[in-house]
Amino acid sequence: MTYEYRALPVAPETPRDSLRQMLAIHAEFGGWELAGHRIYPGGKRTITVRRRLRAEATAPPLPS
Question: Of 34, 48, 39, 47, nearest to 12 (Cα)?
């Protein structure tokens, strides 16, 4: 399977509830799932999310 990845930087002062809500919205409406979570010195966090790439049509649509 092929995945699309996106890194979401999170400020140290971001409350945990807000972060959880943001991830829930990404998951519900964008089809993203959690792929990784990294905490750096100083409190900065980076959340990595991924979603499956969908197959796209290779030929243009036929005229009607």
Answer: 39
- Domain presence at residue 60: no
**What backbone torsions phi and psi does residue 18 show, to the nearest 5 degrees?**
-65, -40
| Dist. CA 3–CA 8, nearest whole Å | 16
Q: Is residue 31 part of a domain?
A: yes
In a domain, 57, yes or no: no
Instruction: Dump pLDDT digits (tens) for 33-56.
Output: 999 999 999 989 999 999 998 776
β-sheet with 33-39: strand ranges across: 3-10, 45-52, 33-39
Q: Name, in order, each residue with C-beta under 8 angstroms of 7's C-beta and a sequence gap of 6 or more.
A: 46, 47, 48
User: Which residues form the domain of 27?
Assistant: 3-52
63: tokens are: 């005229």
